[in-house]
Amino acid sequence: MSTTTVTVVRPGALTTVQDTGRRGHAHLGVPRSGALDAPAARLANRLLGNDPGAAVLETTVTGCALRPDRPVTAVVGGAPCPVTVDGRPAAWGAPVHVPAGAVLDAGPVTAGVRAYVALAGGIAVEPVLGSRSTDLLSGLGPAPLRAGDVLPLGDVLPPGTAARPAALPGAAPWPAPPAELVLPLRLGPRADWFTPAALRTLFSAAYRVSPHSNRVGLRTEGPPLERAVPGELPSEGMVLGALQVPPDGRPVVFLHDHPTTGGYPVIGVVAAPGLAAAAQAAVGTPVRFTPG
């Protein structure tokens, strides 16, 4: 049986293939990658009855458009955006039937940053180190989408072998993008490299999301943090959610494509559950760090 494919009509500003990521390869210098808003990707797959780890498309701000060669069912979720099928309005956040040859268009987001386009069967590009995710830092996985790319889909699993499409009362519970990003922070391992005044600033100052943020890290704008220890560290391991402070003193939250080592001090770590909201925090969103 031949494989269903979708052709990229409009790739948008940055659209990548993402699943649950590459775990267990940090010692090789390979970060986790995977969907930045993991709960949104899981919910999109759940609404289709896909495996929770099926690969989806993660768009950035401007969305994307696809044309399947056979009828498919799709869900566009995550950041809210207009959805059309051949120019006709379709549902956002719920399963949509897309006929063969029709164009499914996930338009520019109306809030947040990243929308997720899930297709029944999942995106079935070849896995690399156990994941289909695009890693922008190392270059592993498929390249960001370009117009004309053709992506294969996996087989839709028969009933009883995968989760049935979710039957949720009313609308699916899609979280709204944050009006203020509140990040619980556990101090360490290098909090002692900063002055007591810097720690007070970290937990009291108003920061904002910088336009220089990306999948590697959420950069902030705001008051710099004063160092108590001069110089730099030898490179040491970095984890997802590490709050690293570069020489300009403005904290950077490491996201899924972060480097696995670094020489700037890490003042604290944001727990992984707090990072989904960071994926949807638009440029200029206020950021507040809290002890946690």
Query: Which segments are poorly predicted (pLDDT under 50) over 5 or more consecutive residues?
Result: none
Strand order of the largest sheet: 12-19-16-17-14-13-20
What class do helices, strands and sheet pairing give?
mainly beta
Q: Kindly provide the radius of gyration, computed on alpha-carbon positions and rounded to a whole number of angstroms.
A: 20 Å
Overall pLDDT confidence: 94
Distance between the termini: 52 Å
Assess the beta-strand content as a share of residues.
25-35%
Could you estimate the helical fraction of the residues in percent?
under 10%
How many strand segments? 20
The major beta sheet can be summarized as: 7 strands, mixed, barrel
Count of separate DSSP helical elements: 3
Element-level helix/strand string: EEHEEEEEEEEEEHEEEEEEEHE
**Shape by Cα distribution:** elongated
